[in-house]
Write a structure and sequence with these properties.
The chain is of the alpha/beta class and 219 residues long. The chain has helices spanning 75-82, 85-95, 139-142, 145-151, 178-198; strands spanning 14-17, 52-59, 105-107, 114-116, 119-130, 152-166, 204-208. The chain has one domain (14-23, 36-208). 23% of the residues lie in helices and 23% in strands.
Length: 219
Amino acid sequence: KEKQYLPSPNKSILITRWKPFIPIIEANDRPSAIIEFVANVFSYKSNDDVQSVEWYLNFANSNLFAYYAGHLLAQDELQVLECVELDGVRQYFTRAINTVASRTVDSDAHTNRLVPTPILISNTERVINLDTKEIYGNGFAHAILAQLRNAFQSNDLPQIVNLIATEASIHGEDCYTDDQISYILTSCYTIFKAAQILAHKTHAMNLHTSRSSDRNSNH
């Protein structure tokens, strides 16, 4: 049965892009962040705690959502398929003047080195749950119609999600250079601080991360 999606009324999406923060290590008595390793996939389910904000990591392309209409299925494309409002976000990036840029990586004006510029998207609606086991990557281009229909499941009610879009710094297996380690630490710190700033009116912040770019990996 076909369903038509209309965004919920009186709702807005907040899009912010962040310059790198310089990590500062302070000695204080404040409680440290709680890190919990959970062997499952992103469910995007709310914990029903009105005093906390859930953030989910998306390993994005350096040009956010630029290839969502292509033949491959990676995290950028998956996010747009499940949160169809993000199609409009991409159009906003490409057509609006004097607005936030779509780059999750940029060049430092002083050093000309690449630096992370993560984009945080708040309050978008996830309306589809896509099973990617058989259609991830190149499998999406070769999938038959029956496979795609079996993979798509419509959510009864939209899930409100907050996304952190950042490009993974390196790929493959090798030793890390000093520059790569610095980039990774700066990226992680910037992501955490940005989410913390946006959640400043709440008492807690939950940040969901993943060990790889595949949404089906552990996190």
